[in-house]
Write a structure and sequence with these properties.
Layout: H1 2-25, H2 28-55, H3 67-76
Helix pairs in contact: 1-2
């Protein structure tokens, strides 16, 4: 999963860079479309995969502010 995320991230960065080059050197509208599709695919594909990879195996209760966690924080002081 880690390598898939790295490759996908590099592809997204390369496509955004190519879109920026294409926008300034060749055609503005096509470059804007390339950048837009790159950002859209990053949000639709990369972001959910990244969030799943980072949160896998973790409990959300450890990161929320509940009465139990407040008591633990007060005991540490």
């Amino acid at each position: 999963m880690k390598y898939v995320l790295r490759v996908l991230f590099l592809i997204l960065i390369a496509s955004i860079s190519y879109g920026a080059y294409h926008r300034t050197a060749i055609d503005f509208a096509t470059g804007e479309r390339i950048i837009g599709f790159s950002v859209l695919s990053g949000v639709v594909f990369f972001l959910p995969l990244f969030l799943y990879h980072r949160w896998k195996g973790k409990r959300l209760q450890d990161y929320t502010l509940s009465e139990e966690n407040i008591k633990k924080m007060r005991e540490k002081r």
